[in-house]
Amino acid sequence: MLTNQSIINTDFTPLKSTDPVSGLLGLMEEQDVRVLPVVDSTTSKLIGQVSYDQLQKINDNDATVADLDLGEVVKIYQ
Asked: 31 partner at 20 to 30 Å CA-CA among 2, 11, 21, 55?
């Protein structure tokens, strides 16, 4: 039986709202993740998430994470 601990990846750095979008697809591929959480750059509070599929549709290399429509965050409690 799988437990939460065995399927949850906690070895990543969350994105900040000020991070540039360019390069994020490569980062996600490198870390083998499909979704990354986004934190506010000043408060470090969780404000949303960005998906790999969403980033594939972005054509603006100058966009930042704050320019995206951030998905609702999935929270997991222990």
From this structure: 2
Rounded Cα gap, residues 51 and 66, in angstroms? 14
The tens digit of pLDDT for each residue in 4-43 reads 555 565 666 788 988 899 888 888 898 888 888 898 888 8
Q: Residue 44: phi, psi to the nearest 5?
A: 60, 20
Give the number of other CB atoms < 10 A from CB of residue 17.
Answer: 18
What is residue 73's DSSP assignment?
P
pTM beyond 0.70: the answer is: yes
